[in-house]
Amino acid sequence: MSDQSNPRFKQAADPLDQVLRTLTAEQKVYLRGARAGAPAPVGDQQSGLEIANIAGIAGQTRVVLARGDDPAELGNELRRLSTEIIRLGGPPAGAAGRAALMAWFQADASAGPAFVKLCAQLKERLLALDQQEAGRAAAPKTEPPTNEEILAAELGRQLHANAPGDGFRHVTAILVVGGKVYRGKNAGGEVGLVTAELVRRLADKGEKWSIPNCAEVHALDAFVKARTLADKDAVTKALEGSRAIIATVSAKGQPLATWGPCGACEQCRQWLEKLGIAMVKG
Ligand SMILES: [Zn+2]
After folding, report:
1. Per the CB 3.0–4.6 Å rule, which of 4, 35, 84, 95 could disulfide with 47?
2. What average pLDDT does range 112-126 have in this prediction?
3. DSSP assignment, residue 185?
4. Residue 251: what are its φ and ψ, rounded to 5°?
5. Considering the chain, what percentage of its residues have pLDDT values greater than 90?
6. What pairing do the DSSP bridges indicate for beta strands 260-261 and 180-185?
7. What pLDDT is recorded for position 142?
8. Across residues 96-121, what is the average pLDDT?
9. Which residues, including other chains, have CB under 8 Å from residue 126's CB and lie 6 or more apart?
């Protein structure tokens, strides 16, 4: 039976973590501001409070160390410190008691440094725990879904939907900009002037390209109209840095009355690329 399989060994957490768990809120406040550069307390009440904190931290640490098999050197130093505090009249010893304790710290070569080191180690862990706590508090704010996630969900629904069984070719483009979905269909009717002018400018005018036949054009048109973008510069600006994405699916009707992925035509590929709209395979 190895040490690791011994339940008592498993339960034994790091002594410093055990000490931290037993400290009072007041003692933790003391540790967070511990030592380095901290102003000396003013008056009997504050001085007494600091000595109470020192006595408490030393005492709690001794209790934890005493539980271990090896009380260690630190335990002996802390015992000497506790004895000195009691000798000086106990924690409520006021400003005079604090001054006497600080003088003892100065004069003693081992107990003072041992306690300062202990405080520094406890402070380091305490600040790390504070940060974890802050991270947990911030965590419940869930991130809004990305354009990619929204498109994936839309595509999932579309590919499982019933396709029209009329024998005609049906194409649907799904454009996602700023978390919003804009759909377009082939033969979707008239295209707005701003959209028509923009895509015509950005694509080589293929002889056979009929703008209103492209589902992608209608999806862009839906976006332009929803945002009431007045000209091509407004459209370009609205898409800039938006990480807009688009996917196209088609169904040929009977006997293949199901949706499947389909690519954009050569002209659409050109204007989509120039507008920075990423094409995702449907
Ligand atoms: Zn097209």
Report:
1. 95
2. 89
3. E
4. -140, 135
5. 34
6. unpaired
7. 75
8. 86
9. 20, 28, 31, 32
| 157/155 Cα distance (integer angstroms) | 5
Please list the residue range(s) of the chain that carry CATH number 3.40.140.
147-280
Q: Tell me the CA–centroid distance for residue 162 and ligand 1, in Å.
A: 23
Q: Which fold has domain 147-280?
A: Cytidine Deaminase; domain 2 (3.40.140)
Query: Ligand 1 center to residue 173 CA distance, Å?
Result: 10
Measure 224 CA to ligand 1 centroid, in angstroms. Answer: 17
pLDDT for the residue 253: 62
The pTM of the whole model exceeds 0.90 = no
Angle made by CA atoms 34, 36, 42, in degrees to the nearest 5: 70
Q: Say what the pLDDT of residue 202 is.
A: 93
* Angular region, 253: left φ>0, alpha ψ -120 to 50, beta rest: left
Q: What would the two tokens of residue 15 be?
A: 């002594």
Cα 112 to ligand 1 centre (Å): 79
Highest mean pLDDT among 91-105, 192-206, 265-279: 265-279
Q: Ligand 1 centre from 87 Cα, in Å?
A: 91
**264 C-alpha vs ligand 1 centroid, how far in Å?**
5
74 Cα: distance to centroid of ligand 1 (angstroms) = 77
Q: Smallest Cα–Cα separation from 115: which of 66, 71, 76, 63?
A: 76
Residue 219 C-alpha to ligand 1 middle, in angstroms? 11
